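Entry type: protein chain
Record version: 2
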Amino acid sequence: MSNSPPLPLILAVVGHTNTGKTSLLRTLLRNADFGEVRDSAGTTRHVEAAQLLLRGKPYIELRDTPGLEDSIALAGHLKSTGLRGRSCLEHFIGQAQPDVAREFEQEIKVLRQALECHAMLYVIDCREDVLEKYREEIAALSLASRPILPVLNFIQADSRQLQNWRTALAELGLHALVEFDTVAFDFDAEKRLYQKLQTLLETWYQPLQQLLDYRAEEWQQVRNACIAQVAALLVEMATYTQPPGQGEQRAKQLESLQNTVRQREQHCLRNVLELLNFSSANVQLTNLPVQNGEWELDLFAPETLKKFGLDTASAAATGAALGAGVDLLLAGLSLGAASLTGAALGTAWHTSRRYGKDLLARARGEKILCVDDTTVNVLLLRQLSLLRHLFRRGHAALGPVQLNEKEKAEIPSGWREQLTRARSLLQLKVGVDSREYKNALTDMKQWLASVL
């Protein structure tokens, strides 16, 4: 359209030192490597820029600026110019004495970006009291005659402080604002940020809508791709088989099967991290044994079962009654044991009864070794927990993500039907390219999406 504004839309990210400006950019860019983030004042000392692209075309340019440090003194110098509006800032930037320019080096960088941008995102640490220095910052930035959208960060800390900031900003004429936790990702919050910009920048409404639609579609595609990785892991492990060995060879086969499951889960983890643009070095998750891109708590360790509230007491009792006279090891991956035990046989017997006489008859003839229900259940719970954490993790997070609600390690409704569907593929003797396998995989993906 001929009346469309020129791209990109330039947004200056401004605010006091250590409020989360660089963190906001990292989360919006999905890039944990942008800039430098530390829990200390004055980390950003110069202006950095990055662009949000839509099909290769820059739509938004985000400019990260240094923190404002002495707005009270700055206000005095601005008033001394006797000018107002943009002329005041331009005169201060261009005519400041050398000693003044050195004293306000960081502030001048910020004010220059305020003059050059189309709008500003003013990042606020809601944990702080509403002090006069913040009012003076806003007053100085307002001289640039550009829209200012306050971004309320650290919103979970204190609801009373959050309301105090809302009231103070309204008194300053800033009624449009957005709550955006820069380290706990929420796409709905990102959506609201762009929508608030649309209300402030009417001529940019359509380009912002196009970008918003694209980002929503992109996020959904990434989310679905992560779910597909987990679905593939669960179906593959539910249908994976090996021929059991005899004597010492059997113990080696059990160990081999355990290692296969471990490696396949690690492969899934790496793929999910890559899809979400997290590096192994910057992932450390609360309530999950994941650090530096690796599962630290072994899948078959007793504490893993305890963590997820799983036990095989009833299966173990059944196994003890059966003894070692059953020549079938179906779902016989014992939980951490590298030998054939009564507990393993009990789990196997439960599985064979659950999935029918036909499967039992076929398994008796072929003596297949596959992954037991409990192990697949642990895989399910670990992957669900992983995705729930990562889907809410911002790219600026330096440490574990703290969630408000205590995570419940409960097997979701409908899982038994999904596992039964996957196990039935063993009866059919179908490969991964078969229609039946693909249908089971599709059902698994849809079910996972519904419970996440």
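Comment: DSSP finds 17 helices and ten strands in the chain.
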